[in-house]
Amino acid sequence: MGGVTFVHNRYWVVRHGKSIPNEMGLVVSSMENGKLEQYKLTPEGINQAKLAGESFLKVLKEDNIPLENVRICYSPFSRTTHTAQVVASVLDISFEGPQCMVLDDLRERFFGPSYELKSHDKYPDIWALDEKDPFMQPEGGESVADVVSRLTNALINMESQFRGCTVLVVSHGDPLQIFQTILNAAKDYDGSCESDLALRIQAVKIPCVLSQHRKFALQTGELRSVV
């Protein structure tokens, strides 16, 4: 078992707080729409983000982790940016400073034009497809495997920039399910390429692993330790 020595940081995830699209029951997954201010957090979502920040701060204090060792990496969508701002405020970390970093590769999974701005009741159809074949794209959208590719880039980016940090990844439901799936599988991988992070993830990027991402579902505003 490789343990957690394959990464140089500790990773936590938080799904954005309840957003206006959540309240409206809308799929907002394109970068163009996702960045619009009209799709930020609801008052309930702001409160969820505050609670997540307070829970994270409690963990940091219990584990004697200094705030200067904390990094917040977030998706550029308005709902995740809003969440990251609230959490940074709770932690008393400057959102404009070097400890907070936006990463495009943490953006929402694009479900395709046939789902965009439509009812979120369609999500189960996509997840059924994922379970059957996680390499299959919803029409014009991203497959689970596509999301793995860019999350691998995000992880390599974070690993190259930070050492010995506690990193909070602020993203969306599907990307965070997939992020947890690949990190959990990579953690247990003990093949010949275990020292190379990208190769390690590539080795576990297989249908029987990726099809199970729904097991790692998060509620809005939910905080979770990954590795």
TrEMBL record:
Gene3D superfamilies: Phosphoglycerate mutase-like. SMART domains: PGAM. It holds the Pfam family His_Phos_1. SUPFAM superfamilies: Phosphoglycerate mutase-like. This is Uncharacterized protein. It comes from Solanum chilense.
